[in-house]
Specification:
The protein has 660 residues and is α+β, with helices and mostly antiparallel strands. It has three domains: 12-439, Glycosyltransferase (Alpha/alpha barrel); 441-541, Maltose phosphorylase, domain 3, CATH 2.60.420; 546-659, no CATH class. The chain has 16 helices and 22 strands. Strands 2-6-7-8-13-10-11 form a seven-stranded antiparallel sheet, with no helix packed on it. It has a six-stranded mixed barrel with strand order 15-16-20-19-17-22. A hairpin with a 5-residue loop joins strand 6 (458-461) and strand 7 (467-472). Helix 8 (205-216) packs parallel to helix 11 (277-294), helix 11 packs parallel to helix 13 (345-361) and helix 13 packs parallel to helix 16 (424-434). The two termini are 49 Å apart. Bound molecules: zinc ion (ZN). Residues 344-346, 392, 424-425, 428 line the site of zinc ion (ZN). InterPro entries: 6-hairpin_glycosidase_sf, Beta-AFase-like, Beta-AFase-like_GH127_C, Beta-AFase-like_GH127_cat, Beta-AFase-like_GH127_middle. Residues 545-657 form the Non-reducing end beta-L-arabinofuranosidase-like GH127 C-terminal domain. Residues 9-437 form the Non-reducing end beta-L-arabinofuranosidase-like GH127 catalytic domain. Residues 449-543 form the Non-reducing end beta-L-arabinofuranosidase-like GH127 middle domain.
Length: 660
C-alpha cells in the first residue's frame, strides 16, 4: 500500500505540459467561465450531446445566482447543470497554483471566490445544494427520483471542488459548505427508518466522499462512500419503486436498462466493464480508492478485475473507452469499431482517476503505461490546441460526409464544439490538466521508495530536502526519450527512486552516475538506490516508430496497421493526404522518416511513410474481377492523433490498410 504524494510541491517544467497548463489557465478556464456566465453565446452543435436545454447559453452561473437570491429568473439546463460550475471550480482551484510559475491568476481567483459565494448562498439550511431541485421542485421531491435526478452526482462534484480548493488554498470556506452537503446526504441516506436505501443513477458521490474523508479525516464520510458502493445493484426495483411512489422523473423518453446505471447487480460481483462508461469508471475509481482506504479485499479485487477487462478488451489504442453511442457505453469484449466509437473525453479522464487510485494501491508500470496512453492521446484529443473548443466523442476514424449523411454517425463531430448541452467534458479536461502534478509520483507507505511514473519534466521537493528534478534532452518528451532524474538527498535519507520502463520501449539504456547499469524490471519499474547526497539516473528510451497490429479478435482492425512512436499514436488527416484515406496503405516494414516541426500544431513530430494508394481501372460501382487493382506509390503524412482537427475539416483515420 502506498500514499499518493498529493501534498508535494511538484513544479512541472515540461515544455509540452507547461504549454497545456498555461493554455488551460490563461485561455480555457477564462473561456469556460465566460460560457458558464452567459457572456458568450455557445456553439452547441446539433446531435453533439443529448439534452433538453436547447438554449444558446449555459445558464449555469445564473441558476446559482437565482438560487442564492441575487437575481430573478427560472432554472434552465440539465438537472446537473451545477456540475459545470463545480468542475470549473475544481479546475480553477488547482490552477491557482500556477501563480508559483509566474502566471497572473488574480481574475481566476476572483471568479473562484465568486463561485464559492454563490454556492454558499444557494445552499439550503439543511445542507442541500442542487439548484435544479431548489428552483424547480418542492422540497418533498428531493432524493425521490434518483434514476435521473443526478442530485448526488451534482453534490459530489461540489464536494470534489471544495476538497481541491481546501488542498490548494488551505481555506475551509468551500469545505465547510461541502461538509454541510455531506451531512445532509448522511442524514437522508442509510439503512435506518425513513432513510433512502438506494444509490444515485450516476455514481460520483462515492469518489467525492472518499476524497472528503482524506481531506478532513472524518471516518463517517468514508463509511458513507462504502455504503453507497455496497447498496448499488442490491435492489433492482429501487428506481421503479421511486417512480411508482410519485418521485420526479426526467428524460422520460430515454429508456435505459439498469446496466446503464451500473445498478443491475452489485458492483463487487461484476465481471465485465458494462453500462455507461463514465458511470462505470467513476464508480470503479471509487471502489479502488475506498477498497484501499478500508483495506477491503473484495473491493480491491473488483477494481483490478474491471481494469484488466477494460485494458485487455475494451480500450482503443488511443485509450478511448466506450465503444457504443447508445447509452454512451461499453459494449462487449473486442468490439472496437473505429467509426462508431463513443470514447467520451470524460471517460478517458476517468481512466486517469481510476489508474491513479490503482497506483496508490500498488504501483505498476502497466497501469502507468495506460495512464500515459490516455494522457497523450485519448484525453488531449478532447481539446483544441488553444483550449476553447472540445470533443465529447473521440473517434479513430472520421469522415465529415458520413457524420452528415448517416444518423448513426452524427455523434462523430469533425469540428470541435464551443460548448455542449451536456457540457461535462470541457471542465473535466480542465481539472485533469491543472492537477497533472498529482499524477507523477507515488510514495511507498514506509516513505522509502518514490515511484516516478510519468515522463513529465518537473522539480519536486519531498521531505527533508529530498528532491527529484526530471529533465529531458533534445526536443523533450514526448518527442525525445532522453530523460535524466537528478536526485538530491542532502540528509542521506534511506531512499530509492523507482523509474518506469514503458512496455512500448523495446530497448533502453540506463546509467546511474554515468555508469551503465542493468537492473531488473520489477512490475514495470527499475529501482535505484538514492541514499547518496546526489544520484543521477539517465534513461534513454527507444523512440523508434512502431507499426502496431491489433489482436485478431478485433474485427474492426483486421488487415490494418496503426503507427506509434513513444507514447504518441499517430493518425492521417485529409489536410495532409489526398483522400479518401481508406485507399491509402502501408506495409509493416514501410520506410518512415520523422521530423520535429516546431511551427506546426504548436510543435509536433511528423511522420512521412512510404506507402501506396489503391487505384482501380474502372469507376463501376460493382464489376466482375478482371484487371487487378494497382497500388501506386504514395507518401503518407501522419501527425499525432491528439492534434487532429486543428486545421481544415476533413477525414481522419488512425488505422491504415496494411499492404504487402
Ligand atoms: Zn463528458
Amino acid at each position: 500500500m502506498t500514499n499518493q504524494a498529493q501534498a508535494l510541491n511538484v513544479n512541472i517544467t515540461s515544455r509540452f505540459w507547461t504549454r497545456y497548463l498555461n493554455m488551460t489557465v490563461e485561455n480555457a478556464l477564462p473561456y469556460q467561465w465566460r460560457a458558464l456566465n452567459d457572456e458568450v453565446p455557445v456553439d452547441v452543435p446539433e446531435g453533439a450531446a443529448w439534452g433538453e436545454n436547447g438554449s444558446q447559453f449555459s445558464h449555469s452561473l445564473r441558476n446559482l445566482r437565482i438560487a442564492a437570491g441575487r437575481e430573478e429568473g427560472v432554472f434552465s439546463g440539465q438537472p446537473f447543470q451545477d456540475t459545470d460550475v463545480s468542475k470549473w471550480l475544481e479546475a480553477a482551484s488547482y490552477a491557482l497554483r500556477r501563480k508559483n510559475a509566474g502566471l497572473n491568476v488574480d481574475e481566476l481567483e476572483a471568479h473562484v471566490n465568486e463561485a464559492i459565494e454563490l454556492f454558499e448562498g444557494a445552499q439550503d439550511e439543511d445542507g442541500y445544494l442542487d439548484t435544479k431541485f431548489e428552483l424547480d421542485l418542492p422540497a418533498e421531491k428531493r432524493f425521490k427520483g434518483l434514476r435521473w435526478s443526478h442530485e448526488l452526482y451534482t453534490m459530489g462534484h461540489f464536494i470534489e471542488a471544495a476538497v481541491a480548493h481546501y488542498e490548494v488554498t488551505g481555506s475551509k470556506r468551500a469545505l465547510d459548505i461541502a461538509e454541510r452537503v455531506a451531512n445532509c446526504i448522511g442524514h437522508n441516506f442509510g439503512d435506518g427508518e425513513g432513510q433512502v436505501h438506494g444509490p444515485d443513477g450516476h455514481p460520483e458521490i462515492e469518489l467525492a466522499l472518499a476524497r472528503l474523508y482524506e481531506a478532513t479525516g472524518e471516518r463517517r464520510w468514508l463509511d458513507l462512500a462504502a455504503w453507497f458502493i455496497r447498496v448499488r445493484g442490491t435492489d433492482p426495483e429501487f428506481f421503479d419503486e421511486q417512480d411508482a411512489a410519485g418521485g420526479p422523473q426526467f428524460y422520460t423518453d430515454l429508456h435505459m436498462p439498469l446496466k446503464y446505471f451500473v445498478q443491475d447487480e452489485p458492483i463487487l460481483d461484476k465481471q465485465h466493464a458494462e453500462g455507461h462508461a463514465v458511470r462505470l469508471l467513476y464508480l470503479a475509481a471509487a471502489v479502488s480508492k475506498v477498497g484501499r482506504l478500508l483495506n477491503d479485499q473484495k473491493m480491491l479485487d473488483t477494481a483490478e478485475r474491471l481494469w484488466t477487462n477494460i485494458v485487455k478488451h475494451r480500450m482503443y489504442i488511443t485509450g478511448a473507452v466506450g465503444s457504443c453511442q447508445v447509452g454512451e457505453s461499453f459494449s462487449f469484449d473486442d468490439d472496437l469499431p473505429n467509426d462508431l466509437v463513443y470514447g467520451e473525453t470524460c471517460a478517458s479522464v476517468a481512466m486517469l482517476f481510476y489508474g491513479k487510485s490503482l497506483m496508490e494501491t500498488k504501483p505498476r508500470g502497466s497501469v502507468a503505461d495506460v495512464m500515459e496512453k490516455e494522457l497523450f492521446n485519448g484525453v488531449l484529443s478532447g481539446v483544441q490546441l488553444d483550449g476553447t473548443r472540445y470533443f465529447y466523442v473521440n473517434p479513430l476514424e472520421a469522415d465529415p460526409a458520413a457524420s452528415k449523411g448517416n444518423p448513426t454517425k452524427a455523434h462523430i463531430l469533425t469540428r470541435r464544439a464551443g460548448w455542449f448541452d451536456c457540457a461535462c467534458c470541457p471542465a473535466n479536461l480542465g481539472r485533469l490538466i491543472t492537477s497533472l502534478d498529482q499524477y507523477l509520483y507515488t510514495v511507498s507507505n514506509d516513505g522509502k521508495t518514490v515511484y516516478a511514473h510519468q515522463f513529465v519534466a518537473n522539480k519536486t521537493e519531498f521531505e527533508d530536502g529530498f528532491t527529484i528534478e526530471q529533465t529531458q534532452a533534445g526536443d523533450e518528451y514526448p518527442w525525445s526519450g532522453d530523460i535524466t532524474f537528478h536526485v538530491s538527498n542532502p540528509n542521506g535519507l534511506d531512499k530509492k527512486v523507482a523509474v518506469r520502463i514503458p512496455q512500448w520501449s523495446k530497448d533502453y539504456t540506463l546509467e546511474v552516475n554515468g555508469e551503465a547499469v542493468e537492473l531488473p524490471v520489477v512490475d514495470g519499474f527499475v529501482t535505484v538506490d538514492a541514499s547518496a547526497a546526489d544520484t543521477e539516473i539517465h534513461l534513454v528510451l527507444d523512440m523508434s516508430v512502431r507499426r502496431v497490429r491489433a489482436s485478431l479478435r478485433v474485427r474492426a482492425d483486421i488487415g490494418k496497421l496503426a503507427v506509434a512512436r513513444g507514447p504518441i499514436v499517430f493518425c492521417m488527416e485529409q489536410v495532409d493526404n489526398e483522400g479518401p484515406l481508406w485507399l491509402d496503405g502501408m506495409s509493416a516494414d514501410a520506410n518512415v522518416s520523422e521530423s520535429y516541426e516546431p511551427d506546426l500544431l504548436d510543435g509536433v513530430e511528423v511522420l512521412k511513410v512510404k506507402g501506396s494508394r489503391l487505384e482501380s481501372p474502372t469507376d463501376d460501382q460493382y464489376r466482375a474481377v478482371d484487371a487487378p487493382l494497382t497500388e501506386r506509390e504514395e507518401t503518407l503524412t501522419m501527425i499525432p492523433y491528439y492534434a487532429w482537427c486543428n486545421r481544415a475539416e476533413g477525414q481522419m483515420q488512425v488505422w491504415v490498410r496494411e499492404t504487402k
